[in-house]
């Protein structure tokens, strides 16, 4: 049995275009498979401006959230 799937890390933006987005959001993991999708919270928040959508990672050398968590700590969780 072969199951097609796709895995994506992304920032879950909070707010709307009309009211504006918060400067940070939850880092989420999305798994898409043949009949649907499921999202998981990774447990970190990341700043939108310090996120690389193409690499699906935080930009190197940056800190994120109120706790100033380093990008290397957040990215390490994605292995």
Question: Which descriptors apply to this entry?
Answer:
8% helix, two-stranded antiparallel sheet, mainly beta
How many H/I helical runs? Answer: 1
The span between the termini is 26 Å
Instruction: Give the strand order of the largest sheet, numbering strands 1, 2, ... along the chain.
Output: 1-4-5
State which percent range the strand residues make up.
Answer: over 45%
Please tell me the total number of domains.
1
Tell me the overall shape: globular
Low-confidence stretches: none
Radius of gyration: 14 Å
Major β-sheet annotation: 3 strands, antiparallel
Helical proportion?
Answer: under 10%
SSE inventory with pairings:
Elements: E1 5-12, E2 15-16, E3 20-21, E4 24-33, E5 36-47, E6 51-52, E7 57-58, E8 63-64, E9 69-70, H1 71-76
Antiparallel strand pairs: 1-4, 2-3, 4-5, 6-7, 8-9
Q: Would you summarize the structure shown here?
A:
The chain has 79 residues and is mainly β. The chain has one helix spanning 71-76, and strands at 5-12, 15-16, 20-21, 24-33, 36-47, 51-52, 57-58, 63-64, 69-70.
């Amino acid at each position: 049995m072969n199951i097609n799937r796709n895995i994506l890390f992304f920032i879950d933006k909070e707010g709307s275009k009309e009211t504006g987005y918060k400067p940070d959001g939850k880092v989420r993991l999305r798994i898409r498979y043949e009949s649907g999708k499921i999202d998981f919270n990774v447990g970190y928040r990341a700043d939108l401006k310090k996120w690389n959508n193409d690499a699906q990672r935080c930009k190197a050398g940056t800190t994120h959230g109120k706790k100033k968590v380093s990008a290397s700590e957040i990215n390490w969780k994605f292995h």
